[in-house]
Please model this.
Amino acid sequence: MTPFDAFLLPPGCERPPVYEVLELPGGASLRYPVLPADQCESLLSGLEDAGEALGRVPVRSLSRSIGRVADRLLDPADPLRAEALEILAPTAGISPEMADAVLAGMACDWTRERLDELLDREFGSVEVLDAFQPLDGGRMVRARGPSISFHVGSGTVPGVGVTATTLVEAASLLYMIAVVVLVLDGTLNAVVDLIRASRFGERLPLTTFAQVVKLVLYGLAAITALSILMDESPALLFSGLGAMTAVLMLIFKDPILGFMGGIQLSANQMVQRGDWIEMPKYGADGDVLEVALTTVKVQNFDKTITTIPTYALISESFKNWRGMAESQGRRIKRAIHIDINSIKFCDDALLTRLSRVPYMADYLAEKRQEINAWDGGHDEEPSTAWHPRRLTNIGTFRAYTVAYLKHRPDIHPEMTFLVRQLAPTQHGVPVEVYVFSRDQNWVNYEGIQSDIFDHLLAVLSEFGLRAYQIP
Model:
């Protein structure tokens, strides 16, 4: 029987001059070439190029190519079928009739129709084997399988030694570990993004937990990969970690402190993503961008980024403005320093002029009734600088400030509302405004505050008062 050529050289490859024949039971034989080293290198290079080109061929085209071969194997008049039957019967040790039935049964499953049916049933869209395809909800999916097939089939290649097979299996296992780690990493990132988009996402230190899981994941992957390279059980390497506890504690001190700090920050709701915090020691004054495993990123209002050790937010003090953001108001706390020499009693001319000021007529009328009632009970007292009782211009100014602020729609009426006089200082008598604006936006807030004090400074002269300033 003529030896069966158990090889196929790619186009352009020179046929080798030396062959070896492998005798099989039943009188059949296989012939394969003995290639010199330089031709092996050239052949491997060509196979790599061909493999890259084959990887770009759509799976549907590959199934059609396999289907054409199946059609030839099912065609009784095709020489390929006759050659296959000739080698199959003696090689497998079966009768020609059984060989014919086996070949027909196998080839029926390789036809284009059966392959297309299989691919559509398994994947829905066979294009997922070629590239990422969109799913509902904007997600992307792709099927991967070459590494598993490579690993399973690596031990069944004829003529490949045990050492080479072991190396191939190890390389395929390492590749699968890398793929699994990357898939789990991407899945974890997707889960974090989904939770962050929910209403609970802002309250949880998702980045911290994700980084801890990734640290464990990559650590396990590294130990597993090392066990494959060393051909040892992973349990042996894990048992050695106990003896290295002190060293590991020193190496991973910051991640451990950061993880514990992240848990405390989350449990006590001390810092959340989006909070405005101040920490002068680290030059931080802005919004929290990310609470990570070892650092907290803060974007300052000048757009610079400050990183703070996560544990520092537990061990040191800082200011969090979240309460202001949740209170529906923003505090205005500023004082006007009145020149003490301009403070005096209001005479009739001043009171007459002030009665025409908006918001003041009712106040002045009420105060006059109160003073007249008081003076009526003290008629027997001699007239002095403090009797009869009179209004002061600074007290009337405070009353005007209260009335003016109450008529402003941008001042929150249900939060602390206070206009008070503080203790005199070397800079005069402070009259402090302590109220809350409805608008928390920084730009709008500053505009409201400026409008209020622009007006109050401008009307000081109407009350006979002067703002104190150093000459």
